[in-house]
Amino acid sequence: xLAKEQHIQSENYTIFNILSNGEIECSNSLEDxxxxxxxxxxxxxxxxxxxxxxxxxxxxxxxxYPLVKEWFVYFGNPLRxxxxxxxxxxxxxxxxxxxxxxxxxxxxxxxxxRYSTFLACFHLQDGLExxxxxxxxxxxxxxxxxxxxxQVSSLSLEDLxxxxxxxxxxxxxxxxxxxxxxxxxxxSRAVHLGAVFVRGLTxxxxxxxxxxxxxxxxxxxxxxxxxxxxxQEKYQQSHRGCSLEELLEGN
Length: 251
Fold this sequence. Notes:
Elements: H1 2-8, H2 15-21, E1 23-26, H3 41-44, H4 46-57, E2 68-72, E3 83-85, H5 99-104, H6 108-120, H7 128-132, H8 136-151, H9 157-170, H10 175-179, H11 188-210, H12 222-225, H13 228-240, H14 244-247
Parallel strand pairs: 1-2
Antiparallel strand pairs: 2-3
Helix pairs in contact: 4-11, 8-9, 8-11, 9-13
Protein name: Constitutive coactivator of peroxisome proliferator-activated receptor gamma
GO cellular component, one term: nucleus
Keywords: Receptor
C-alpha cells in the first residue's frame, strides 16, 4: 500500500512494479554497440539490481526468492521475452533488514541501517563512514563511480579523474555558464560513459526507494551531479594529460 501511494505521487522509482508484478523494464538506451570494452548498461547494473530485488522481496520459507522478469535492452537482446533474474542477498552483517524496519522504523540506528543496506547493494558497505562525511549528492556520485570502477574493467585513471573533476567543478557553475560551454568536438566514448553514468542514477533511485530513503530523492537527480558538456570538457582535458590543477580549475 505504501509503495502504491509513493508510486502514484512519483516518490519512488520502479518499486511498486517489482512488488506488484515482479517485473521491471528499460527498453531504451544510448550506447555504442561497436564499443565492446564497455558492457551494456543493463549488464553493468544487474548485480546491483539483484541486491535491490533481494531487499524488496525478502526470501520466502526455505530461502528461495521469486524471480524478477527483466525487459532490459542491450546489444544482442531482442526483447522477445523477459529474462528471469534471481535476487541475490547483499553482504550485510546480521543479514538484510526487513522492509518493515527499513520503511517504517525510526531512530538513528535505523537510519544507519538504511544507509548501510543502500551501500551494500553496490558492494560498498565498508565505505560507510567515509561516504557519510560527504555532502549527500557527492556521496551518491562517489557510490556510483566506485561501483562503475569495479564493474567496468576498461575504465582508466583518466576516466576516473574526469568524473571526479566533473562533480567537484559542477557546483560552482551557474546554468548560464554550463549552457555557454563551447566544445570544439564531441568524443563518442565520453557520450557513452555519460549515458552509462546517468542510467546508473536510476539504479541509485531504485535502491534509495527500496532502502527507505537514506538520501533525499532530490539529491540523486541528474542535474545535481551531472552535466554532459562539462563532462566532455573534463574527459578531453584528462585524456590530453592536463594537470590536476587545470582539471580542477585551480580548486
